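Anyone able to model this chain together with tryptophan?
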Amino acid sequence: MATTFTPRVFSGIQPSGGLTLGNYLGAIKRFVDMQGAEFETIYCMVDLHAITVWQDPADLRKNTRELCAGFIASGIDPESSVLFNQSQVPEHTQLGWIFNTVARMGWLNRMTQFKDKAGKNRENSSVGLFAYPALMAADILVYHATHVPVGEDQKQHVELTRDIAAKFNHDYGVDFFPVTEPVIEGAATRVMSLRDGSKKMSKSDPSDMSRINMTDDADAIAQKIRKARTDPDALPSEVDGLKDRPEARNLVNIFAAMNDSTVEAVLADVGGKQFSEFKPLLADLAVAKLSPISSEMARLMEHQDEIDKILARGAERARALAAPILKQTYEIVGMVGA
Ligand code: TRP
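re: yes, here you go
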C-alpha cells in the first residue's frame, strides 16, 4: 500500500537579482495564497542554486535579504510558513549528494534550463549548474513535500524530481519519497515585458521600462504603465479578442491577477475602452497593491538584524523537519552511524 504523506508545499526562489512584478504575481502571491489550513508551507531562498552561475558575494547577501523582505512584505508570515535560506540547512546539500548518485547523466543532459544557461559554453559551465536539478530534488524531498508551486519553466525539474524519487524508491525497495505534484502557474500569472508582449518580464532585460520592480515607488510604477507598449485598438469584451494582441493580453492579465479576478470578468468591465482610459485604472490598481509592499520592503531592509533573525529561526525549524528524513535516507542507503 502506498504511504500517505502530509500535504506539504515547498518552493524556492533564487536570490540572484532584483524582484519584479513577474516574481510577485507568478510566484510570491501564489505562495501567500497557499498559506493556511490546507498545507504546511515551506519557502526557501535558494542561495546555493544561485551560485551555480557567478554571484558577487556582496550582491548575493543583499539579494538574499531583499528576497526575504519581499516575501514578508507580500504577506508570507514567518510564523505560519517556514521561511529560510538554503545554505543554513546543510541537509539539502547532503541529500543532494545522494541524489547525484541516483540521477543519470542522460536525464540531466536533457534539461532545457541547463542547455539554455550553458549555451554554447557547456565545457566552461560549472559542474553545479549541471547538477542543479538534483539539488532542487533534494530541496523538495528532504521535506517529503507533496506540492511544488512553480512556473512553467520549472515543470521539467519537478518531473525530474519525481523520476529521482521513483528510482530511489525502486532501487532501494522502499516507499520512502513521495511523488511530488507540480502546481503550475496559470497563463494569467505569466507576466510579460511591458515593451514586448512576447518576452517574459525579466530582471536581466537591459531596459528598466520593460519591468516593474518590487522596489519601485508609486511614481515609477505609474510611469512604466503609462509608457507600456500597446496596439491602437480598443479593448475587446471577450477573451477571443486578445488573440494576436500580446501587449493587450499582458496588461489585462496583470489587471486580473492583481485584482484576484479573471480575464473574462475584467474584459466584461473594460471592453470597449481605449488604452488611454484603461492604463490609468491599471496604474491605480498597481500602485494600490504594490506600493505598500515596496515601502514595507524598504523599511525591513533598514532592519537587517530583524531579517537575519527571521532567517536563522526559519532555518532551525526547517532543520527539525529535514534532519530525521535525511537520517532515514542514510539508513536506507546503508551508511554506518546514521
Ligand atoms: N529552480 C527554481 C527556479 O529557478 C528555484 C528552485 C530551487 C526551486 N529549488 C527549488 C523551486 C525547489 C521549487 C522547488 O525558479
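The chain has a mean pLDDT of 95.
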